[in-house]
Amino acid sequence: MANELQRGTVLLKELVLLMQDLSDEDVGKLFNDSNIITFLGSILNMTEYKKYPTIAAFLLANKKRSTTIAVFRYLIQQNFCFKITKDNQTGFVSPYFIQGFDDG
């Protein structure tokens, strides 16, 4: 188990460095719909909840995994939006999954 954790730590650091070097287009290709679902599902397999008497029991049994997903969601929500003020009105803009632009 310790070896797997060490290997995971090394792989995660390598992924961070790789992501910094990839082009925007290549990031999109790497994290296509199926890859991102597979990645997130490896952290918390949502199909497993059916094996538990309640969703709360599932989340409790997978406390660290579900917390990791919750932290991802929180960090994305808090850190990947832009505060914009125009004409004394403030709003927030954040990326949206259908927000693709052709060459723009």
Q: Please tally the β strands and state the result.
A: 2
How is the main sheet built? 2 strands, antiparallel
Uncertain parts: none
SS field, number of helical segments: 5
Shape: extended
Elements, N to C (H/E): HHHHHEE
Detailed description of the structure:
The chain is mainly alpha-helical. The protein has two domains: 30 residues; 67 residues, no CATH class. It contains five helices and two strands, in the order H-H-H-H-H-E-E. Strand 1 and strand 2 form a beta hairpin.
Element layout with pairings:
Layout lengths: L1 H20 L2 H7 L2 H11 L11 H7 L1 H17 L2 E5 L2 E5 L11
Antiparallel strand pairs: 1-2
List key phrases describing it.
mainly alpha, single chain, about 100 residues, two-stranded antiparallel ribbon, 2 domains
Task: Briefly say what this structure is.
This protein has helices at 2-21, 24-30, 33-43, 55-61, 63-79, and strands spanning 82-86, 89-93.
